[in-house]
């Protein structure tokens, strides 16, 4: 009996040591992965998203041209995007609408519009080859202090460069955080953010770190209110996309960051694994003692 007891303790002790080693290796891997991908957070997805940002031109009856920004929407069954989202106020005075990218100008027509939410979906005469469009975030709700990126073609950048470029390399990217989620007097769900936007940025996408759309650039505060900018929440756009017949791309985008978001649950998993190891080792020791 004494021998059996010592044997059982030996097996249990060895199992605990193995479990501790496994936990250390696992945690080391998690920490290294976190360091690597936290460093790269936002960079690759955001830079890639520029390929789907376009300039919107609205030509009035008198020939006056106003410009804004927009972005291509990803679809399930089409590799080349056919629809563009922008702000309604960008197009409201235009008798003719055009989408520009990489020096190419394509005629566009309204497909679905919502003046109250300041959103419009445009259909383009020909798809832009190699542009699969951006996805709306289905990951989770954006939260205050979470980082975001606003993309577009602000007019001030045209002044700096001396030309109205539509090249993707000229897309302006500004970074900030979610200040708060709110509902404005018009009943729209909006994202108040610190990422600066200016005239010409309206209609451009606001992205999370995964490169998914969480909002549409819409407004900036008055001159005496610094650091306050706003975007219409992406959920306001979903009914409009359905009305336009856009078959949204619902495929999730894998990112190691999505794994890191769940890091708070790792202790639970580790303790559960330790408990299972203990039960397994204890029962195994009992079985061997019984056989002896």
Automatic annotation (TrEMBL):
Coiled coil: none
Upper lineage: Bacteria, Bacillati, Bacillota, Bacilli, Bacillales
Domain of life: Bacteria
Entry keywords, A to Z: Hydrolase, Membrane, Protease, Serine protease, Transmembrane, Transmembrane helix
Pfam families: Trypsin_2
Protein name per its UniProtKB record: Peptidase S1
Transmembrane segment boundaries: 20-37, 262-282
Signal peptide: none
Gene Ontology MF term list: serine-type endopeptidase activity
Gene Ontology biological-process annotations: proteolysis
Entry-linked InterPro entries: Peptidase_S1_PA, Peptidase_S1_PA_chymotrypsin, Peptidase_S1C
């Amino acid at each position: 009996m004494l021998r059996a007891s010592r044997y059982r303790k030996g097996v249990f002790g060895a199992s605990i040591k193995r479990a501790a080693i496994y936990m250390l290796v696992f945690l080391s891997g998690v920490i290294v992965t976190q360091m690597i991908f936290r460093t790269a957070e936002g960079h690759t997805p955001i830079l890639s998203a520029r390929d789907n940002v376009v300039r919107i031109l609205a030509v009035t009856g008198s020939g006056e041209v106003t410009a804004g920004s927009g972005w291509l929407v990803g679809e399930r069954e089409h590799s080349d995007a056919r629809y563009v989202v922008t702000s309604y106020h960008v197009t409201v005075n235009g008798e003719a609408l055009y989408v520009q990218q990489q020096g190419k100008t394509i005629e566009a027509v309204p497909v679905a519009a919502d003046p109250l939410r300041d959103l419009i979906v445009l259909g383009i005469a020909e798809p832009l080859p190699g542009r699969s469009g951006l996805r709306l975030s289905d990951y989770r709700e954006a939260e205050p202090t979470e980082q975001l990126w606003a993309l577009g073609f602000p007019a001030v950048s045209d002044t700096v460069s001396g030309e109205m470029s539509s090249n993707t390399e000229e897309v302006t990217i500004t970074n900030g955080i979610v200040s708060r989620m709110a509902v404005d007097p018009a009943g729209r769900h909006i994202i108040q953010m610190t990422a600066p936007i200016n005239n010409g940025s309206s209609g451009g996408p606001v992205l999370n770190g995964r490169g998914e759309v969480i909002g549409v650039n819409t407004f900036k505060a008055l001159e005496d209110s610094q650091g306050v900018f706003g975007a219409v929440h992406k959920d306001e756009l979903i009914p409009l996309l359905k009305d336009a017949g856009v078959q949204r791309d619902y495929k999730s985008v894998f990112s190691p960051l999505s794994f890191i978001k769940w890091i708070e649950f790792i202790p639970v998993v580790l303790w559960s694994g330790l408990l299972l190891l203990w039960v397994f080792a204890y029962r195994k020791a009992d079985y061997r003692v019984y056989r002896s």
